[in-house]
From TrEMBL:
Compartment(s) where it occurs, according to its Swiss-Prot or TrEMBL record: Cell outer membrane
Family of the protein in this entry: Belongs to the TonB-dependent receptor family.
UniProt keyword rRNA-binding present: no
Chief localization: membrane
Protein name according to UniProt: Iron complex outermembrane receptor protein
Membrane topology per record: Multi-pass membrane protein
SUPFAM superfamilies to which the protein is assigned, alphabetical: Carboxypeptidase regulatory domain-like (SSF49464), Porins (SSF56935)
Length: 1014
């Protein structure tokens, strides 16, 4: 049975903690009395252990030589120990030379020297609810740090990961500033529950639900919600850690099936306080233009003479612009003996490359940590960020059909038309479903304002040496308002005008308690974790609309005073939903002699989203590792510095389904009514809208991973290799129901499987490393083979295609034995002597129809890769990154709208269609004519900087000036704007894959920037 845990029950932990505190103090006193006394009173000696580069060392052992008293350094390298002035400390850590330090005061600083070159495998890496040395990891975990984030115009976290982690694919749903981004890890694992990983920011798991309001359809399609991750200032991010396999992600249970991304923000570091000012100025333009007929080419095409309007206009030049962007970020960081502090404030102003689109964001952050009581027994952390985002959008709804997209209007516009008529007014095309794109932009106004606050406080109490109790309370609050106006106009899309306002509020509250215990018994090392988590999600919204108001520039605009303007056509309405997640989790990490490793975890999740018969799901994992390089036969090898083999198995879950779908739903309607009385008045009857299913449960992802980590020739070659097999079981579908069911469909777990398997590699090298010149090169790549198995229905369709005469046509199919979201269409064979398109007659009946469609390869690339290089010569730094993919396909729905038939209807066409010799009378049909490879390689980022050391000014440390470019060039055969795109064209909630429909193009950007440190 499902129960909520009362927070106040944890008050019972207080007397237990006090008993431990007293017992620990008595024990410490007993130890002190059993050793020789060098002075009358022991001192509390505090200190920090660092490596030769000043980085903290966690896990170093500190021993008082004279008494045997011991301590261990924490993640910040800090330690405290009871000793006397004049005694000696022995400080040791594997891989480093032991250091003997004479105590001359109550504070000491120890710098350890590596016995060999530091390797990546020795770094400390975040994992769920803690951290581990990379040498102790048994799961597939990848981490990026600040130095991996090359300067660029990156709005959100997902942009920072692009091309840097094997198996992680970042695809834009749109190039519009602040638009949503699709992130997938190791393929596509669900048909309708999404493939977005779980994002955890400073210990708070975020909801994958939209946090900004969507724009209702007022004739131009629904405007999609913005990227929920764009509220973070990327300059504040310290590291991004991706948990890819089940062993690493299973500790997050029901939400870990698509992988987990841990985001940590910056904290104050030891040393002098640092004041930093970051700024840049960016200049953006469209990444490419589509090759359409020019005005002269259009006239020469032999079209109807009435279609020559005497003008000469490049409509792409008219709607696209050279956009200017700027960013200013100020931060302050400081560390003391007992804590650290980081504060920042930033403002980003980014104009979109399409007229009237922009993104404005102001953020503020405060991170603080302080220690209290003896030997820093109690530590309290605070993370708080607030952001205010203002966005202006354009009419480009993905579900607007062929006549609601401003970009498709610009591409189809006859190049012989002029923007303005002889009176200086916008030229009226006088056509149904086709308008002057500049005029359409002028009468449309879409503004979204989103305010979000994310904060958490974490308290850590050391009960006994190695035994810590942690408490984490987090709150994520968002308020969003979207005002969309279509002013009265001369088109056939809401000609009398329409205004809508949509409001959304969301609240995510987290409460966690957990214990960790680290201890060693001879050569046996243990790290134990046990905890409880409760999270509640609540979101609500209101919306209304008015129409038939006065023209633009006259009277009061409806967004200022909607009650004064027009008449209501959407009465005030609203909605509210909430769901809760209650979890118990535990993990054991064990190592023997730093050679043999074992990790096991179990999480039990209870969710209100699922049926009463399956409230709880259980997600286990187990992993083993063998550090071969610590064996005697390799310990002194000059070639193999680090070598570890590991294997894991585990299960995670996916709960991303609509709320309440396990429960029946009813409504009153006249269609189900009856006549109860003799007066013949119709009484509304009850209609069943949804059939209950109390047995509904999580989708389960079972994953096996085999990996190897290595470092050779003193870091000349390092990296990791992975093989994974990831299978989704019990997928949730809304499928046809059985006989006698009150509804035609039912939400149900089916016995189907979606299998993703492949290889990943991450290779790096310190090619050159000396006093003046450093050159690091990293390469990563991943393969994926995706297939659907055991689907209980013959097929599932998705991927709605837009275009004249294409209503109800879909491009994606889910069928057994094929890749998820494969393409289903006619097979185009060429053009006959009369210019008619030839298609394969699959069924041989002499006619071309729906039965002649075939299944073709899908959108998922079978290989993705990234190349990242960093060079530093004296005070110059130079970095570049390439990204690419092969083996995937895209449906170019934009080209489908720009088909040859446009020349018969006063519209423009792609030049290659005209030059193919096709007849103007060919009607558009979805076929492989519009199916293109999405293979590409792109210079994603390049940066050149120079650092000035300011020795003359004591208050100024350094100035780094740099120039940077993004999306500098792309090598591809894809004829659309960008091969790395995916428009959301889902049908019935089932994922669409690989459709490019007049997507807001990506931008090519040049940046001038500076980083000043005081």
């Amino acid at each position: 049975m499902y129960h909520k845990i009362n927070f106040f029950k944890f008050k019972k932990l207080v007397p237990i903690a006090l008993i431990f505190l007293v017992a620990n103090q008595v024990n410490a006193e007993g130890l002190t009395m059993s050793h020789p006394v060098f002075s009358q009173v022991n001192e509390t000696i505090t200190g920090v252990v660092q490596d030769q580069e000043g980085k903290p060392i966690e896990g170093a052992k500190i021993t008082v030589v004279e008494t045997g008293e011991t301590a261990t350094s924490d993640a910040a390298g800090n330690f405290s120990i009871s000793a006397n002035i004049g005694q000696t400390l022995s400080v040791s850590y594997d891989g480093y030379t032991e250091q003997m330090v004479k105590i001359s005061g109550t504070s000491v600083s120890v710098s350890l020297t590596s016995k060999k070159e530091t390797t990546s495998i020795e770094e400390v890496t975040l994992v769920g609810y803690g951290s581990q040395k990379k040498s102790d990891l048994t799961g597939a975990v990848s981490q990026l740090k600040t130095e991996n984030f090359k300067e660029g115009m990156n709005i959100s976290v997902d942009n920072l990961m692009q091309g840097k982690i094997a198996g992680v694919r970042i695809v834009q749903s749109s190039g519009e500033p602040g638009a949503g981004v699709n992130v997938s890890i190791r393929g596509i694992g669900s048909i309708r529950s999404g493939s977005t990983p779980l994002f955890v920011v400073d210990g708070v798991p975020l909801s994958n639900d939209a946090v900004s309001a969507t724009g209702p359809n007022i004739g131009l399609g629904n405007a999609q919600a913005k990227n929920p991750l764009n509220f973070l200032n990327t300059s504040d991010i310290e590291s991004i850690t991706v948990l890819k396999d089940a062993s690493a992600a299973a500790i997050y249970g029901a939400r870990g099936s698509n992988g987990v991304v841990l985001v940590t923000t910056k904290r104050g570091k030891r040393g002098e306080p640092v004041f930093t000012y970051d700024t840049y100025l960016g200049f953006s333009s469209v990444i490419k233009k589509l090759d359409l007929l020019t005005a002269d080419e259009y006239r020469a095409a032999g079209i109807d003479k009435s279609y020559d309007h005497g003008g000469n206009t490049d409509w792409q030049d008219e709607i696209y612009r050279n956009a200017v962007s700027s960013n200013h970020s100020v931060s302050f960081s400081k560390s003391t003996e007992t804590g650290n502090y980081f504060a920042s404030i930033a403002h980003m102003d980014q104009d979109g490359i399409v007229l009237n689109s922009n993104f404005r964001r102001t953020t503020a952050r405060l991170n603080a940590e302080e220690s209290f009581f003896d030997n820093k027994r109690l530590k309290i952390k605070l993370n708080l960020t607030a952001s205010d985002i203002k966005e202006t959008g354009i009419p480009n709804g993905a579900n607007a059909g062929s006549d609601g997209q401003v970009i498709i209007h610009a591409l189809m516009a006859n190049p012989t038309r002029s923007v303005y008529d002889e009176n200086g007014m916008y030229t009226n095309f006088n056509m149904n479903a086709h308008y002057n794109p500049l005029y359409l932009l002028s009468v449309y106004n879409d503004k979204t304002n989103t305010f979000r606050v994310l904060g958490n406080t974490e308290a850590t109490l050391r009960i006994l040496p190695g035994l810590n109790y942690k408490f984490n309370l987090g709150i994520d609050k968002t308020m969003s308002e979207r005002n969309t106006t279509m002013y009265p106009n001369i088109t056939d899309r809401t000609p009398k005008g329409a205004y809508t306002q949509a409001n959304l509020e969301s609240l995510n509250v987290l409460l966690e308690h957990y214990l960790t215990y680290d201890f060693n018994v001879n050569k046996h090392g243990f790290n134990l974790l046990a905890g409880f988590s409760y999270q509640k999600f609540k979101f609500s919204g209101t919306y209304f609309g008015v129409r038939n108001f006065v023209g633009q520039g006259t009277g009061v605009p409806p967004e200022i005073n909607p009650g004064y303007s027009g008449e209501a056509f959407i009465p005030g309405a609203g909605y509210a939903q909430e769901n809760e997640l209650q979890s118990y989790f535990g993990r054991v990490n064990y190592n023997f002699d730093k050679k043999y490793l074992l990790t096991a975890s179990l999480r039990a999740d209870g969710s209100t989203r699922f049926g009463v018969n399956n409230k709880y799901g259980y997600f286990p994992s187990v992993a083993v590792g063998w550090t071969i390089s610590n064996e005697n036969f390799l310990k002194d090898s000059n070639i193999i510095n680090e070598l570890k083999l590991r294997g894991s198995w585990g299960q995670t879950g996916n709960q991303e389904v609509p709320n309440k779908i396990t429960q029946a739903s009813y409504s009153l309607s006249q269609g189900s009514g009856y006549y109860l009385y003799d007066n013949l008045n119709l009484i509304n009857g009850v209609t069943v809208n949804r059939t209950a299913n109390p047995d509904l449960k999580w989708e389960v992802v079972e994953q096996t991973n085999i990996g190897a980590d290595f470092s050779l020739w003193k870091n000349k070659l390092y990296g990791s290799l992975e093989y994974y097999n990831k299978t989704t079981k019990d997928p949730i579908l809304n499928i046809p129901s059985g006989a006698l069911s009150p509804t035609s469909t039912i939400w149900k777990n089916v016995d189907a499987q979606i299998v993703n398997k492949g290889f990943e590699f991450s290779l790096g090298s310190e090619i050159i490393k000396n006093e003046n010149f450093t050159w690091n090169l990293d390469v990563n790549g991943a393969t994926v083979n995706n297939v659907v198995k055991d689907l209980p229905v013959s097929e599932i369709y998705s991927g709605e295609v837009s275009g004249p005469g294409l209503s109800g046509v879909t491009a994606n199919i889910y069928r057994n034995g094929y890749e998820a979201g494969s393409f289903f269409m006619l097979n185009y064979l060429g053009i006959d002597a009369n210019g008619k398109y030839i298609y394969e007659d699959v069924d041989g009946d002499g006619k071309i129809g729906p039965k002649d469609r075939k299944i073709f390869e899908g959108a998922i690339p079978n290989f993705t890769f990234g190349i990242n290089s960093y060079m530093k010569y004296k005070k110059f730094d130079f970095a570049f990154s390439f990204i690419g993919q092969t083996g995937g396909y895209l449906v170019n729905n934009t080209a489908l709208d720009l088909n040859i038939n446009n020349l018969a209807s006063d519209r423009n066409v792609l030049k290659n269609f005209y030059e193919s010799g096709a007849s103007f009378t060919n009607q558009p049909q979805l076929s492989t004519l519009y199916l293109e490879k999405s293979d590409f390689i792109r210079l994603n980022n390049v940066r050149l900087g120079y650092t000035f050391d300011i020795n003359q000014l004591k208050f100024l440390r350094s100035i780094n000036l740099y120039v940077s470019a993004q999306n500098l060039f792309t090598i591809t055969s894809y004829s659309g704007y960008d091969p790395l795109v995916d428009t959301n064209k889902q049908v019935g909630g089932n994922q669409s894959l690989g459709i490019d429909y007049t997507t807001y193009p990506s931008a090519k950007t040049f940046i001038l920037g500076a980083t000043v440190k005081f």
